[in-house]
Amino acid sequence: MLKINLNHKSYLRNPEVTILGQKIVAESIRLIDYLGFEEFTFKKLAQEINSTEASVYRYFENKHKLLIYLVSYYWVWLDYQISFQTNNISDPAQRLGIIIRILTEASLDNLQTTYIDEAALHRIVIADAAKAYLTKGVDEDNNAQYFREYKTLCRKIAAVLLEIAPNYPYPHTLISTVMEATHQQTYFVQHLPSLTDIKSGENTTGKVADFLKHLVFAAIAAYKI
User: What pLDDT band is residue 70 in, cutting at 50, 70 and 90?
Assistant: First the structure.
């Protein structure tokens, strides 16, 4: 079983190392997915885990910090999946195609993890991840390295792109756009279908992946070595 230990300043006490901490993370994912982030409170969470608000606050200062933790966990989990599935692939173009597929398939639950519902976490990331950084305090949070995992994964994928097209001038811009687009297109398919040409139904993730692969490889075509 995969166990991700996230060393992060967003928490006061590492939830991964205690049963209560793991219950807080697992139940917060279920509850945010069900209620939405706006309606989610530590009081409601405490009731669901048969504990007290004070016990939740011993792990997280507020629900904004909890959201940052959950989103960071998501990016670390994706980073692991990408490293595992591309480890023996020497062709960078093939690696990049696999990476884009993994980004779009993040909605699938993974039985390697012990207690995290990745499908629910993915839905939270689609709906609420931007709320982690679209805040007045984003610069302070950035200085505290709250977005380190997101930026690290972006750099890793951009490095693969540069293996294919070393002179492409916008590697991080393109990759961060793709990382966001995997969520946006999925959201549009589900809720704002007139903003996308991808239809809801069978193999939606595959069609999103095909679109993003076309976007990336068309953008770098003139710069390929």
Answer: very high
